[in-house]
Amino acid sequence: MDDLQHFCANDALKEDFIQQPIEDLWSLISPLYMIDEDIWLNELLPMACATTLEKKNILDNASELIRRVRADKNAVQMIDALLLEYSLDSKEGVLLMCLAEALMRIPDIATADALIRDKLSVADWKSHLKSSDSVFVNASTWGLLLTGKVVSMDVRDDGSPANIISRLVNRVSEPIIRKAMNQAMKIMGYQFVLGRSIKEAQKNGTKFTNKGINYSYDMLGESALTALDAKKYFKSYVQAIESVGVKNNLQGLSKTAATVSIKLSALHPRYEVAQKDRVLNEMYNTVIRLIKLARELNVGLTIDAEEADRLELSLVLFEKLYKSKEAEGWGNLGLVVQAYMKRALPVLVWLAALAKEQGDIIPLRLVKGAYWDSELKLSQQKGYLAYPVYTRKEATDVSYLACARFLLSKHIEGLIYPQFASHNAQTISAIAVMSSHPHYEFQRLHGMGESLYQHAMDMFVDKLRIYAPVGSHQDLLPYLVRRLLENGANSSFVHRLVDANYPVDELIEHPVETLQKRSTLHNGLIPLPPSIFADRKNSFSINLDIESQCIPFEARLSLQMQRTWLGGAIVSGERYYASQKHNSLQLLQQVNTPYDNTVHVGSVLFSSSELVEKAMQSATEFYPVWNATPVAIRAKKLKVLANLLESNMPELVALCHKEAGKTLHDSIDEVREAVDFCRYYANQANVNLASVHAHKGFDDITRNIARQGCGVFVCISPWNFPLAIFLGQVVAALVSGNTVIAKPAEQTSLIAARTVELMLKAGFPADAIHLLPGTGKNVGVQLTKDKRIKGVVFTGSTPTAQLINRTLANRTSLPIPFIAETGGLNAMIVDSTALPEQVARDVVNSAFSSAGQRCSALRILFVQTDIADRVITLIKGAMTELKIGLPFLHRTDIGPVIDAQAKAKLAVHIQTMTKKYKLLAQCKLDSTCAYGYFIAPSMFEIESLGNLEHEQFGPILHVIRYSSDQLEQVISQINASGYGLTLGIHSRNEANYLHIATQVKVGNCYINRDQIGAAVGVQPFGGQGLSGTGPKAGGPRYLYRFTKQVILDQQMMQEQTQEDLV
Amino acid sequence: MNLFTKNMVTSALDQWEMWNEIGVVARAEFLKVWADELYKSPELGAKCAKMALYQVQQALHLISTEKSMPGPTGETNVLYTTGRGLFVVRMSIDAPFYGVIAHIASALVAGNCLILCLPKAHQILADKLLSSLILAGIPASVVQVSTPEISKVLMKTPLLAGVAYIGNEQECIDINRLLASAPGSIVQLISETDLDKLSTLTDKHFILRYITEKVRTINVTAVGGNAILLELGNGDL
Q1: Which of A254, A632, A636, B209 is 20 to 30 Å from the Cα of A237, by its Cα?
Q2: CA distances (Å), B203 to each of A1045, B55, B105, in order?
Q3: How many domains does chain A have?
Q4: Is residue A931 one of the residues assigned to a domain?
């Protein structure tokens, strides 16, 4: 944050500020990504603050404007009316929007009817009757009420089927209901969308264009997932530009000639920072073609804003486009900036400097921001230090006004042409008052704020443009409804504006005053990402898409990437590593990277039988000491270790790359998961294991009980999570009072050795944790045969778990706790209410990320026949865009599989499947994969789950089509496999997905998202049947299995009390 | 496996879905009635009834409600439990009967089905037990009675979720070997060999051995429903 000391927000208002070198101004942007909200708002408040005169004028204008709107009988129309009645904080509002989002895309009758029943039968439509003045809303309500009544008849309150007559009524009524609902959705579509084609939109817009109000047309839709979709959007932009161009040129240059808005994510399937090269070449070339055409036809282009992580990339691209010969001298290439982003002001400053340098004005739409809740969610999931956006609405309003102050200042005139998009009377009035020049315009959404602007234009607004979505209702409605759901229209100004009971004083209050009235500038109700868990710190992550975060991290990482490591057993703190001399050749292993077997990572010395014995003896002897160590002290060591892991993240990431072939994101996530395990289990132990409880037994006698470790625990971990699962097992056993002998996977012994070194550094006693790298056949068997071990925790394949179980059972001692987490034949069920684009994205992620080497990875996709072709086409297209290669490069999506054996096994499966079934798609491997263990992600179509016998631990997806009446058979097939780890469901039908989730016997069920990446303490992880024994790792019941209950006598109680005092 | 045993297993597994789905609280109600029946039975008596009630209480305390897990906004994560499936119940002749009751009560309240394979010498008690369960309204296929010999047949198949055992160490080890040698899932052996103190059965978290955990994660932003977050955005603290 050093840069911040040089950037005082108010300085932006000084004329010479933008005359600094453009690189210097650029460097002010990124550090503000996660700046402390209070610090930065304190900078912005003076800029947003109105002078006494301004304040008076704003108040007068805004009050009068509201008075006129409220007096206008036609003020509340269409969308405003609908949203006002069906407020999104009501059950009916959300249900209506959910129905609108999905209904029109459902191709089959049965699923559409089921969705209508799902949404309409549970709401209280009657309460909305006649409470709205809008004919449209009342008509809709009658329809919904009747429909809701009819569909409700199907089921009695107790859930039993209703009588035959009712069901008959229902069946007879279904086509009518469906038709009515589709009609209602179409009506809604007309309100949201100006036209289904650009020509229709232009025609429908004449009511306003005749009054001199023009449009910015937006060919809305989902982001492109495939090259084909990107091409389709490109074509629609070309058509829009051509059509708008013809009309603009016919009309001659008006003060607000129509423009076209483009969304970059629609023009390229990989508009991501990780694919910067492609964005700056392929996407650049695409947009340049649009610019050329638009310039020829005299149509302004505006680049829409998207998520916070893409902001810096979008600016880099904008600069390249703006400086191109095609755009130079034009002055009609614009962009959108979102005021809810903390970086908004320095972005504007940089753009102004850019314009000053080149001399071409930049049209700039200032909006408040459309992805607020997703930004919050992402930051919390990723564990960033802070949010990129403000946490209070009024803070965004303050930022908006501060940005407006800058844009409207005299020295920016002619550099940026501001376009203020707002439906808020206070904001509109404030901008009109603040302006020092007339060269700006207002913008409103089609269907919203019509009356507000009509009166504002009568009073003080000069130029207005309408932002109008164009496209088929089926494509646009879901998009718009999701935007509305996300934006929380219920709390918007529109609602309060037309609500006569809402005090005008509050509506026109200046946001600076509103914000200053708050107890803090930030919103204390929304915890920062590190604090989302009440009892522990969220693990920390680096945002690789943000320059200020990425560059310092990459510098530290590249140093680590140049080194090699030595590893081996660690017994009683002594390291038995590979060395120049004294190596047993039989036990010495050279480690090369899975992505390039010519790159050396280091050497590992496997454990000898004598060392295994030595570790066993030490762990057995030390158990009483460690078990007697107070839980609080044991837990503290886990917390110290968590911090050490975070501070050593670059080295651990480098090890994950080089020894396990993990990609950059996977490696960071690996460290984070390990950190979360440490903190979570530390807390769980403190809460559940630390104290002595008086407990009344079945015999009514109250005893003092405590929980203790069982003895020596053997932890056998896999290579696919060489740090997280390795450490998760080990620290769970340790914090519970057991001593531990850890046997890591042969392939990832170096990471394990480095981790145990850190554990010793964190203060774990040398005799409590022993590391024994080696093969299962030697070290594993010797350990599990030993009668001295009192528990085993294992993650790996099902056959190995069975083998360990047999070895343990063959001992001449009583059974011991055996916690096994094994594989799965994981399925995803997709019905036709699902959004195909979302499905494709989640399928590709679930099946192929981490090269399919996650126990949770998707193996079998069941997709309803009615949408199967579309979904498969999208997945194929998305697979084409995947980058398989060197895992340490940011641009790589998929790295290698772990070793030659894994590669060979998967290759055989691919070969078999290719012969027997239909190969739907296969990614291409380029020359960077030549020396590593790479498997091309592949997708096959098969007939039933019975076609697969075992889990294939790699990037291979199998697709099965099913019809809507076969759902129960699908569920039976999954259950019959005997595996039960993860399940994905994509459906908008709540009753349907809850039914599936209940019926399918799996440990973790994910609905409307991908099915990988379970978070510690959030989604406790583990399966049933062939997939594992339970309890779930990272869950509140896990540690109990590592302990036993003991009854304390008086003597023990005294000792325990002394320990507690310690 | 003979047809009779096969039918027994089939009907147990068919019934299991329903028994599992009614939930801990509903099952606890049945088992409380069962405890009353045990009280009334001179052969089984108060100790058995108290043990049954104790296990039911622990279940109500530890597994009767779904846990809403904390986490990032825009997603709901719920941790809940179900039974594991079909269990065989075995005991040695010298084991206390209220120990078997602990197994039966825990297994049932957690949502499992049982085949009681008690020693022949306890046949009368087993019959009493079964009739008390039926009197309490527990569906017939949820608890059935067979023999220790049949249990050995069952243990070699992949049909069992687990075996509940109370008795001596050697028999426990033998059962464990038999189970481990069977194909398929790792079958749970929930055993008690400390016949004096019943240290495993009286562990206050004993019920956890009979459950399997499930997590249901729903991305609520995919279909709307993020009103709580939006409300927070407008709230004050």
Answers
A1: A254
A2: 6, 10, 14
A3: 4
A4: yes
SS3 A741: strand
Rounded-to-10 torsion of CA A499, A392, A352, A469? -50
Catalytic residue among A403, A550, A656, A855: A855
Print the domain residue range for A503. 2-52+196-517
Radius of gyration of chain A (CA): 32
Residue A998 sits in a domain of what CATH number? 3.40.309.10
3-state secondary structure of A931: coil
CB count within 10 Å of CB A288 equals 16
A938 shares a domain with A903: yes
Say yes or no to pLDDT of A280 above 70.
Answer: yes
pLDDT (mean) for A724-738:
98
Judged by phi (left if over 0) then psi (alpha if -120 to 50, else beta), residue B156 lies in: alpha
On the CB side of A1012, CA atoms within 13 Å amount to 25
CA distance B28 to chain A (A): 16
A864-893, pLDDT tens digit by residue? 999 999 999 999 999 999 999 999 999 999
Cα A742 to Cα A714: distance, rounded to the nearest angstrom: 6
* pLDDT higher than 70, residue A433: yes
CA–CA dist B52, A834 (Å, integer): 47
CA atoms of A175 and A160, how far apart (whole Å) = 24
- Which residue did the predictor score with more confidence, A140 or A926? A926
| Residue bearing the bigger pLDDT, A436 or A320 | A320
Q: Is the pLDDT of residue A255 over 70?
A: no
Q: Which candidate from B102, B204, B219 shows the least CB-CB separation from A1009? A: B219
Q: In whole angstroms, what is the distance from residue A640 CA to residue A661 CA?
A: 28
Which token pair is A38?
A: 């209070």
Q: Which CATH superfamily is domain B3-234 in?
A: Aldehyde Dehydrogenase; Chain A, domain 1 (3.40.605.10)
* CATH number, residue A645: 3.40.605.10
Tell me if A1018 and B69 make a contact (CB, 8 A cut-off): yes
Lowest mean per-residue pLDDT among A190-204, A692-706, A967-981, B9-23: A190-204
Query: 3-state SS of A450-493?
Result: HHHHHHHHHHCCCCEEEEEEECCHHHHHHHHHHHHHHHCHHHCH
Asked if the interface predicted TM-score (ipTM) of this complex is over 0.90, the answer is yes
More confident residue, A800 or A159: A800
What CA–CA distances, in Å, run from A449 to A446, A850, B192? Answer: 8, 48, 73
- For the record, the structure tokens of B210 come out as 């009979």
**A855 part of the active site:** yes
Whole-number Å distance between alpha carbons of A249 and A297: 7
Q: Which residues of chain A from 1011 to 1040 reach within 8 Å of chain B, CB to CB?
A: 1014-1015, 1017-1022, 1024-1026, 1029-1032, 1035-1037, 1040
pLDDT 10s digits, A318-339: 999 999 999 999 999 999 999 9
Q: Which tokens belong to A796?
A: 């790996």
Confidence of residue A517 (pLDDT cuts 50, 70, 90): very high
Contact list in B for residue A1007 (CB cut-off 8 A) is 216-219
| pLDDT band at residue B203 under the 50/70/90 scheme | very high
Portion 787-826 of A in contact with B at CB < 8 A: 801-802, 805-806, 808-810, 812-815, 818, 820
Asked whether residue A371 is assigned to any structural domain, the reply reads yes
Burial class (CB in 10 A: 0-12, 13-18, 19+), A324: middle
Mean per-residue pLDDT, A357-381: 92
Cβ–Cβ gap A814/B169 under 8 Å:
yes
pTM, full prediction: 0.94
Which pLDDT band holds residue A78 (cuts at 50, 70, 90)? Answer: low
Q: Give dist(CA A427, CA A714) in Å, integer.
A: 65
CB contacts under 8 A, A 275-304 vs B, are none
Q: Assess if residue A24 is contained within a domain.
A: yes
